[in-house]
Design brief:
Hydantoinase_A, alpha+beta, 688 residues, six-stranded mixed sheet, Hydant_A_N, Hydantoinase/oxoprolinase family protein, ACX-like_C
């Protein structure tokens, strides 16, 4: 592993400060630490503790910090909110909406999620109709009051709380994004009578038009709020005096920024994709370091496979996400997630072999871990094929049982007339096909040619599958980054504080004044400065990014166009929209009128951090050989420590390149060499 070695316990009296990040996964929790003085980074992995994720974080921190080490900065990504949503184990929520509009959330939109599927059903809402309550009163589309609020209608909800034990209440009233007075009055009325119930208002969560989407976003926030807040509170309490001075604990956001734990408790929805997004931000840093503008970033961990794009040096983002079929209005880094990881279980269904989405997780884990697992998984298959070293897994922290893995695969293979090795290859082929299809979803289905990208493979299991994925998709280069098994955690140390703000500002572009837009953006900037100031960021560390949603007159959906710094240039912005529309759809209509829908502002707070130092090389383990299976046959294969590869060196396959947090498979006909930043580039020799 290319990293700075963990500090020696009791090595002196001078305090050493570290920036530390933790990526809590379903199987492993990854820890990356950076010496503030030198900029050198190191990484380690510990088994996750699903019953209390904080325990794995604390164990990892204890492993990497010396007696004289202290945390200068701590950030972590969590899947607590996402898992609560996916498993439907969030809080019990009541919804308040306008009289005569009780069915907005239940009926949902008027589109079909899968147009040609006869089996498609609308997703199950998080709040059933019987938990939806209405209140009299109306705000008009222009923000004026049509009917006064009838607060007495809410007494029915107050009474229901006693019997139904609602943990949170979501309030979503018509046109509250233009005038929130009614939502605020409802919140105050309920808060006085239900002080222990958390209340969420739509104009705070998503001040944007589209009633169903805004309601869905608000309900999801309320559904996650108690769960996320309990988790953050528990983690803070468990960490105690390990936290940095001042107690600042930071959490990754779905938009690729970070926020303090206090802000995360107030905006739990922003943590939804907190775990996977670190890899995309790491991809952005890798793009800048290597000069490769277009990257397909794939993170294969123990439980899931996450795929994202970096285009022209920036992560692909969206202003809306669909999770479990339900829309969520928030800025997110585009990440496609499937259930395919090193812990994905191989099983038989209807006479066919399946792999995933079920995962063995960390408890009981793969059969080869010897922790009680009985069903073979992808990692068992890699071990049986010789691609993992059972005696040197996770830097020697764990010993893997190949015989147990082979027995489990042979038992499954008996149903298909295969031995253990043949069954193992079948498992690998199937999981590779699933991952290749996931990459096609975010590339070919969007009109993007994956052959124009480099494939960045990371996660504990990613580098072992990377070359096969590249061959399947005809990608000419694979990059294995530094700290590949903990690359998402490394990415978390490369980002800054970020808060996103938006406001619906509808008008024809040729009928609105530039000053009106400037005034609206100034209001959002003032809010952004307040948020960043609350997190201790002021002055020249504050910056803003502005954007506007546009569409041609008569269309339903919008494109978000970033604005250049400086005064609003109406003609240039219109031209930028026409150009972006042509790039997206292959044509445009410069002669048509354009509507603006929403304005958006990202408030960025630059964090102080050292430059990433060149990786420090440890003493490599001696090279050796073992048999590894390729194309159904065992071949003598070199086993090489990544630390032994120097600048200008190249390694030809077949080879296994080992390091602490991951293992890279270099098939026959492939070559590996080091590139900028200590990252490793793999290419097929005939393609090169």
């Amino acid at each position: 592993m290319w990293c700075a070695p963990p500090p020696v316990k009791g090595s002196g009296t001078v305090k050493t400060s570290y920036r530390v990040s933790a990526d809590i996964g379903g199987t492993f929790t990854d820890i990356v630490y950076q010496d503030v003085a030198t900029g050198r980074c190191g990484a380690t992995k510990v088994l996750s503790t699903p019953d209390n994720p904080a325990l794995a974080v604390l164990k990892g921190i204890d492993q990497v910090l010396s007696d004289n080490g202290e945390l200068a900065f701590f950030v972590h990504g969590t899947t607590v909110g996402l898992n609560a949503l996916l498993t439907r184990k969030g809080s019990k929520v009541a919804l308040v909406t306008n009289e005569n509009f009780r069915d907005i959330y239940t009926i949902q939109g008027n589109d079909r999620g899968e147009i040609f599927s006869i089996r498609w059903n609308k997703p199950e809402p998080l709040v059933p109709l019987e938990s939806t309550f209405t209140v009299g009163g109306r705000i008009a589309a222009d923000g004026s009051e049509l009917e006064p609020l009838r607060l007495s209608d809410l007494d029915q909800l107050v009474d229901a709380c006693a019997s139904e034990a609602y943990e949170a209440i979501a309030i979503s009233l018509l046109f509250s994004f233009n005038n929130p007075a009614h939502e605020v009055a409802v919140r105050d009325y309920l808060a006085d009578r239900l002080p222990d119930v958390q209340i969420v208002m739509s104009h705070k969560v998503s001040p944007e038009w589209r009633e169903f989407e805004r309601t869905s976003t608000t309900v999801t926030d309320a559904y996650l709020a108690p769960v996320v807040r309990r988790y953050i509170s528990t983690l803070q309490a468990e960490m105690g005096d390990r936290l940095p001075e001042g107690g600042a604990l930071h959490v990754m956001e779905s938009n690729g920024g970070v926020m303090t734990a206090t802000a995360a408790s107030e905006n739990p929805l922003q943590t939804l994709l907190s775990g996977p997004v670190g890899g995309a931000i790491g991809g952005k840093a890798l793009s800048a370091a290597t000069g490769r503008g277009n990257l397909i970033c794939v993170d294969m961990g123990g439980t899931s496979f996450d795929a994202s794009l970096v285009i022209d040096g920036l992560p692909s983002t969206s202003n809306e996400a669909m999770l479990e079929g339900l829309p969520i209005q928030m800025s997110v880094v585009d990440i496609h997630v499937i259930g395919a990881g090193g812990g994905s279980i191989a099983w038989k269904e209807a006479g066919a072999l399946r792999v995933g989405p079920q995962s063995a997780g960390s408890k009981p884990g793969p059969v080869c871990y010897g922790l009680g697992g009985t069903e073979p998984v992808v990692s068992d298959a890699n071990l049986v094929l010789g691609r993992l070293d059972g005696a040197n897994f996770s830097g020697g922290e764990m010993t893997l049982d190949r015989d147990a893995a082979a027995s489990a695969l042979a038992a499954l293979g008996s149903d298909f007339g295969m031995n253990a090795e043949e069954m193992a290859q079948g498992v690998i082929d199937i999981v590779n096909a699933k991952m290749a299809d996931a990459i096609r979803t975010i590339t070919i289905q969007r009109g993007i040619d994956p052959r124009e990208f480099s494939l960045v493979a990371f996660g504990g299991a990613g580098p072992a599958q990377a070359a096969a994925l590249a061959e399947e998709l005809e990608i000419s280069e694979v990059i294995i980054p530094v700290h590949p098994g903990a690359f998402s955690a490394w990415g978390m140390l490369q980002t800054d504080v970020r808060h996103d703000f938006k406001e619906t500002l509808y008008s024809f572009w040729d009928m609105i004044e530039a000053q009106t837009i400037e005034t609206a953006f100034s209001g959002l900037e003032e809010r952004g400065r307040r948020f960043l100031s609350d997190e201790g960021i002021t002055g020249d560390r504050v910056s803003f990014e502005r954007a506007i949603d546009f569409r041609y007159y008569g269309q339903e959906y919008v494109l978000t166009i970033p604005l250049a710094d400086g005064p609003i240039d109406m003609d240039r912005i219109r031209a930028d929209f026409d150009a972006a529309y042509e790039r997206q759809y292959g044509h445009n209509s410069p002669e048509n009128r354009v509507e603006m829908a929403n304005i958006r502002l990202a408030a960025l707070g630059r964090l102080e951090r050292p430059e990433n130092a060149a990786p420090e090389r440890e003493t490599p383990r001696p090279a050796r050989e073992r048999e590894v299976w390729f194309a159904g046959q065992p071949r003598a294969t070199s086993i090489i420590d990544r630390n032994s590869i120097g600048d200008g060196d190249s390694v030809s396959g077949p080879a296994i390149i080992e390091e602490v947090t991951s293992t890279t498979l270099l098939p026959p006909g492939w070559t590996a060499r080091l590139i900028e930043g200590g990252h490793m580039s793999l290419s097929k020799e005939d393609a090169a």
